Amino acid sequence: MYSRLRARSGPWDMIVVGGGATGVGVALDAAARGYGVLLLEQSDFGKGASSRSTKLVHGGVRYLEQGNISLVMEALRERGLLLRNAPHLVHDRAFVVPNYDWWEAPFYGLGLKVYNLLAGKYGFGTSRILSREETLERLPTLNTRGLRGGVVYYDGQFDDSRLLMHMAATAYENGATLLNYARVTGLTRDAEGFIGGVRVRDAESGAEFQAQGAVVINATGPFSDDLRREEDASAEPLIAPSQGVHLVFARDFLPGDSAIMVPHTSDGRVMFAIPWHGHTLIGTTDTPVAEAPLEPVALEQEIDFILSTAALYLARKPTRGDILSVFAGIRPLVKAGGGGATATLSRGHAIHIGKSGLLTICGGKWTTYRHMAEDCVNQAAMLARLPERPCVTEGLKLHGFHATAAGFGHLRVYGSDAPRIQELMRADPALAAPLDPELPYTGAEAVWAVRREMAGTLEDVLARRTRALFLNARAAVRMAPRTAALMAGELHRDQQWVAEQLRSFEAVARNYMLAP
Ligand SMILES: Cc1cc2nc3c(=O)[nH]c(=O)nc-3n(C[C@H](O)[C@H](O)[C@H](O)COP(=O)(O)OP(=O)(O)OC[C@H]3O[C@@H](n4cnc5c(N)ncnc54)[C@H](O)[C@@H]3O)c2cc1C
User: Fold this and answer.
1) What is the number of alpha carbons within 13 Å of residue 103 lying toward its C-beta?
2) Residue 216: CB within 6 Å of ligand 1?
């Protein structure tokens, strides 16, 4: 990446600030069209919202209920394209809405039929009403008191930060230059006062440099308004940040293959309990927050709310002691005039062009990143008066594309790279053993992450290349010393580096565990 950076003599066609789903999606789209693109991420790719989602590639049943048909149709189409282009990372999942009231089966049965119909040729499976017995067959741990039956429908599920890595790799293969740990500290202007580039601080070397671009795209998600204020100190905020929390439990809370979808919690939100990487993921909340920290922390009331809602639906009530990991993320929702609950704010995206030409793209969902990027690159090319080039991502297979990756076991998420990781294990059997008995991750994955996936810190490997921290925070801490030693070997670092990595990882990991 550095040699690409140095080799660029003139200005970039596009500079993208922010390495989450939105920014990497834009860099991928622009590079695949043949534009020269530089992406700068202040931390690691996916450090923000994009590693902290519910992991659903979905149209959003709730948006259907809100009457937002165009958003649902857009997302259902994108869901279908993503399954086609990244089958190693996206798969379908059955969701059951359990029914405890007489009206629920016909009501949700009909709603979910409409959901099917809207998906058209991009459909994932037909929804249907289930008897009480069929519901319990799919969800054997469901609370049976008052249970009448259920409705099953199908949606997509994925691994968010892994998908992001594969998008970044695809962008790279198409010519993009992407740097993590490179923070944009300011904007530069051309002779006429228009935004003509960025000032960057490289966190690894401490070096500062400038990069020029025909257009600068602000894809900093929950942080979008900070950069907008760099352009125009009086800019009105666009973002209404909203925190969402998930709790992770052992698989035996939800042993089948189906997920539970609760369409109305006591405060009118949607909640999911989903099998994910051999665990049970339950969430989420929607809490308006004033600021967007890079490492948000779950609030006690959010944890209590998820536990008490889960207790209504599960025969064995999960307790605080059962929580293996808790993670929080900030949704970059686009502000609506007049306040109101963030749960009702649109999940559609917005493109905003500032007074001096800074282009901001924000809002949207993980599911719709490709369409957002298409829209953004069209606008950016027009703004920068670049030659028009058609978008090609609809049929673009993502790095690692593999139609039958499930055969690779937990290495499935690497797709066609999996055999190369297996090769590392064969060459050095010490790399084949799990780093902790509670998780499947091996030393080979840590080595691969450093060599091939731009992992520079222990947290990069344990939180976003593997998902150890998100699945079981204590196991991740146990894995840390051996992982850091392997990384130090790859990166030629000393004991002091190892000690610093362990210290800072353990500080972050404390946010993911509850006191016993
Ligand atoms: C709890 C929760 C659950 C969700 N569930 C789903 C779901 O199931 N399905 C779905 O489709 N969507 C879901 N979403 C929405 C989805 O995760 C977000 O829409 C998406 O990840 C936003 O991506 P982003 O790139 O805009 O923001 P982010 O991922 O936050 O990325 C912004 C990046 O900009 C970087 N940055 C900021 N300032 C600078 C700077 N000055 N220089 C360089 N870099 C900078 C940050 O470090 C960050 O990495 C969920 C969101 C949350 C929070």
Assistant:
1) 0
2) no
